[in-house]
Amino acid sequence: MDLSCIIQSGDLELYVLGMLPPEEAGKIEALCKLFPEIQQEVDAIAATFEAGAMQMAVTPSASVKEKLMASLPAKTGTTATPEANGSPAKVVEMKPVAEQKSSFSKLAIAASWGLFLLATAFSYYLYNGKKELGFEVAKLKQASITSEQQVAELNKKVSSYELYRQLKSNPSLTSVMLASVKPEVKQQAEVFWNKATGELFIDPSSLPPAPKGKQYQLWFLIDGQPTDAGMISLTDVAAIQKMKQTKPGAQMFAITLEDEGGKPTPDLSALVVAGKVS
Q: This protein's superkingdom (predicted)?
């Protein structure tokens, strides 16, 4: 199973941050149990977020505590101790240590929450960047596939043209043009036939695509009797194809549009193109 789509979706980052709906989070947990790769990715994301938060953590300086303590209100107590001059001394009652720590802890908690929100925002930024990068990678892959297909199609056309040029210039081959039997319909084909060996090629590139469930079938005629010369491929209609070997003395070639797979005898009402051997 290809897990890259799940890993690149960004759902794992949201799961680690606790931002997924319960139903979606349950799916991620189930995937973690089924696929170790998903669990490893979740662990790696959590480690990345934790490392980022630690790097951005700031420890308050000692002066912060001193300023905080200096700002605390002082209370005047009633207990006095004799001074050297005999006047009562003023005693300032300090807050309990626990109370002082509580005030400092509140500041630390507030700072921690701020860092947490900053880390969350940074993680969400990374998630969006990763998701956007995933989209761009997918686009590049699709563009690469499309380019490869275009190159393959171009190479195919070049190869077909080169074969056509070789057949056309071969003195041992006879070219027979097959014209449409219906003057109002523009369609034709060309046959290359070796009279000595019976070797036979056809260029069907000027024929319209066969309807669904139909297929072109080539025939050669001797004394009016048609003989099957093979089916024209549905997948390589634009390419020159080698057909069945003919018998000596063929006088005409014709193409009919038959049911897919062909027939042993032609349906004359389905005749498309025909041409006599000169």
A: Bacteria
* CA distance readout (Å), 211 to 39, 230, 234, 240, 258: 51, 18, 10, 20, 10
Strand 271-276 versus strand 252-259 pairing type:
antiparallel
| Reduced 3-state DSSP string for 22-77 | HHHHHHHHHHHHHCHHHHHHHHHHHHHHHHHHHHHCCCCCHHHHHHHHHCCCCEEC
pTM here is 0.47
Q: How far apart are the first and last CA of the chain?
A: 61
Residue of 91, 50, 86 whose CA lies nearest to 74? 91
Per residue in 171-219, pLDDT (tens digit) is 999 999 999 998 888 889 999 999 999 999 999 988 988 999 999 999 9
Instruction: Give me the residue label for tokens 């060996």.
Output: 197
Helix (H) and strand (E) counts for the chain?
Answer: 6, 10
In eight-state DSSP terms, residue 183 is T
Q: Are 201 and 242 in contact (CB under 8 A)?
A: yes
Q: For residue 16, give the 3-state DSSP assignment.
A: helix
Residue spans per domain, the chain: 1-57+93-169, 174-276
What gap in Å lies between CA 61 and CA 235, rounded to an integer? 77
